[in-house]
Amino acid sequence: MGCFQSKTVNLPSPDDPSVPNKPESVTEDQVADQENQVPCFKEFEFSELEKVTNGFSPSCIVSEGGEKAPNVVYRGKLEGNRLVAIKRFSKQAWPDAQQFVAEATGVGKLRFNRLVNLIGCCAEGNERLLVAEYMPNDTLSKHLFHWEKQPLPWEMRLRVADFIAQALDHCNVENRKIYHDLNAYRILFDEEGDPRLSTFGLMKNSSNGKSYSTNLAYTPPEFLRTGRVIPESVVYSYGTILIDLLSGKHIPPNHALDMIRGRNALLLMDSSLEGQFENEDATKLVDLASKCLQNEAKDRPDTKFLHSSVAPLQKQKEVASHVLMGLPKNTVILPTLLSPLGKACSRMDLEAVHEILLKTGYRDDEGKENELSFQEWTQPVQEMLNIKKLGDVAFRDKDFKNAIECYSELVVMMTTVPSATVFARRSFSYLMTEQVELALRDAMQAQVCIPEWPTAFYMQALALSKLGMETDANDMLNDGAAFDAKRQQQQSSWRC
After folding, report:
1. In this predicted model, what pLDDT tens digit does every residue of 205-234 receive, in sequence order?
2. Key word Nucleotide-binding present in the record (predicted)?
């Protein structure tokens, strides 16, 4: 299958003066659809991925593998504000760079809304990395076995069974019939709360061909006998997922089959699901699990049968997954609700941010600079203005190191009349020199100077995004947009 290109690539910018102003008719769903198209698979440079993870900072780590699967997954943000998961393998995992790229490229051709689609890879020197869509709502393992607020509802468990069956059948149709080590950690939930199957499992775990890293009790019998994985092995693993969904526990397949054969199937059921399901539906799912877990591979059903068996069991298809799971729905701000600066910060367009800060100048400092100009006859104030001018010239010329030095000297001198703009400009300069924590501190200080200044909130959003704190960054964008709207309303009332 081919890859999708973003629908927004050829759209005119809302800031383009050649585009007539007319009412927006774009819905939130259309915006999400435009932004979430999966880009074409590509090979990344290592420096690119190092940059978007803040030098593979520990603060960006999402998960870490153990001895049998030594790898670390980081959260990063690409250009265009796209969040990604970056899996960094150990140096020994893929010694052959060509084999790694070929395998990744093959998997990267898949595009399906039930998969965590692979966006790219990197093979430079000893580095082997995979880049995939970012899933913000944890794994099936977390929601089944380590839940905090509520157990995973029955209807959501059926949806997991259905969506993963769809994913496996799609892979089968696309001749990607082997999935390595399917388990509850390989199923993740996207921003809508929909379950997706990680594409990392479509690639071999390591150079030695070992495809199963979990407890041997969960390993398909033929793999134990021959060391080989076949398409029917994937169906067996799907059966272990069904047992997980039914029981909410780690129950070895053989033990589960013993319970089923002893007609104690309902004893498998998770006690927290009491009253949520009909016995007939549970029995059908138990029966399907039994078929999947047959000792002989030839006795197991195919992926089409899996989907046709679980799809009819869902009774609440119209209810969104995030509602069923009790997850908060992220608020979407239409780009037109943000000022040009807000839009530039939301898409991490640092060039545009710099231009806007230059164009805006010091006009939001509410006359503080004019107050100083009346005192130019004093030597200290004249010196202060000279340093400010040097800082502004360095900032304009993108000499951010010197801009930081000048603005830092200025901040020390401006004890009585602090400037929000100086803090905003130094904040941006810190960002451009990879001093993100200092950038956030200065953006917060700018807010102290002018509590409802949208620029201060947008600069905080920029720094928080760089630190990988997406929820907080979105909150700051929301606050900045709200104060922008408030200012516009006040200006309209003054004109009247």
Report:
1. 544 445 555 556 778 898 888 888 899 999
2. yes
Catalytic residue among 181, 364, 392, 484: 181
- 405, with CB counted inside 10 A (0-12, 13-18, 19+), is middle
* Domain final residue, candidates 87, 105, 134: 134
Q: How far apart are CA 244 and CA 249, in angstroms?
A: 6
Between CA 40 and CA 62 the distance in angstroms is 24
> CA dist 204 to 69, 104, 148, Å?
11, 10, 33
Say whether 281 is catalytic.
Answer: no
Rg (the chain; Cα; Å): 27
Q: Are 198 and 188 in contact (CB under 8 A)?
A: yes
Beta-sheet strand order (sheet of 115-116): 115-116, 195-198, 187-189
Are 79 and 348 contacting, i.e. CB atoms less than 8 angstroms apart? Answer: yes
Helix (H) or strand (E) holding 133: strand 127-133
Answer whether residue 18 is part of any domain: no
Residue 114, domain extent: 1-7+30-134
**Full-model pTM:** 0.64
How many angstroms separate the CA atoms of 61 and 57, rounded? 7
Residue type at 463?
A
In a domain, 54, yes or no: yes
SS3 of 394-448: HHHCCCHHHHHHHHHHHHHHCCCCCCHHHHHHHHHHHHHCCCHHHHHHHHHHHHH
Domain co-membership, 417 together with 294? no
Instruction: State how far the Cα of 421 lies from the Cα of 294, in Å rounded to an integer.
Output: 69
Residues 274 and 411 both lie in one domain: no
Under-50 pLDDT residues of the chain? 1-35, 67-69, 206-209, 331-336, 367-377, 492-496
348 and 463 within one domain: yes
Q: Of 107, 134, 161, which residue sits at a domain end?
A: 134
70 and 88 fall within a common domain: yes
Name residue, tokens 């030095």. 405
Task: Name the domain count of the chain.
Answer: 3
Instruction: Say whether both 293 and 343 belong to one domain.
Output: no
